[in-house]
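Worked example 3 (structure in, sequence out).
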């Protein structure tokens, strides 16, 4: 179990480093600093991710693609520029070959992101991905997306966000609880992590 937690921590740390690198370098090309700060600030509230998880889970379980697509369109309008860049970072982290910037403003933004930010980013990427045709699986009542770990990243980040932000704990409806419980059987993407 401790190996699993260390590995989970290492993966989260790696993703965090990628997000920091992203926040430091990529937005300079596509988003100005003010828009970036606003995007990061808008994703800080973990209480937003909880009902979003419930909505997405309800739409997926009921097969309501129309409402899921409407929700994804709303997310895209509000957070699209930032999420498009995040998706590129998540999909191709090996493509990031940048060094740390010396600009303290970008560093401050990148380092200000915590688990609630990651949970909000991941749940929004999940909604957009499913609306664009990625087929989720439902195992033991939990929605997982095979072939990616964004669902597990959401579950782990949301778990940490609830602890840090002292939010009421909710049962995960999306993503494996493997990192928190050690039971990775519901997510084949994490079976090797045991």
């Amino acid at each position: 179990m401790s190996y699993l937690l260390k590995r989970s921590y290492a993966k989260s740390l790696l993703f965090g480093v990628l997000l920091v690198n992203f926040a430091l370098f990529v937005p300079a090309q596509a988003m100005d600093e003010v828009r970036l700060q606003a995007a990061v600030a808008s994703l800080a509230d973990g209480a937003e991710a909880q009902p979003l998880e419930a909505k997405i889970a309800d739409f997926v379980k009921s097969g309501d693609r129309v409402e899921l697509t409407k929700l994804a369109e709303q997310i895209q309008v509000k957070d699209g520029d930032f999420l498009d860049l995040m998706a590129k970072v998540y999909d191709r982290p090996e493509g990031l070959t940048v060094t740390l910037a010396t600009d303290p403003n970008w560093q401050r933004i990148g380092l200000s992101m915590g688990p609630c930010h990651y949970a909000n980013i991941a749940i929004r990427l999940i909604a957009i991905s499913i609306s664009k045709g990625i087929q989720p699986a439902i195992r033991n009542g939990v929605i997982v997306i095979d072939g990616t770990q964004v669902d597990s990243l959401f579950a782990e980040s949301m778990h940490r966000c609830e602890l840090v932000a002292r939010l009421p704990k909710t049962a995960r409806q999306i993503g494996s609880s493997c990192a928190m419980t050690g039971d990775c059987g519901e997510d084949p993407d994490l079976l090797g992590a045991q």
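Notes: The chain has nine helices and two strands. Confidence is low (pLDDT under 50) at residues 1-7, 20-30, 93-101.
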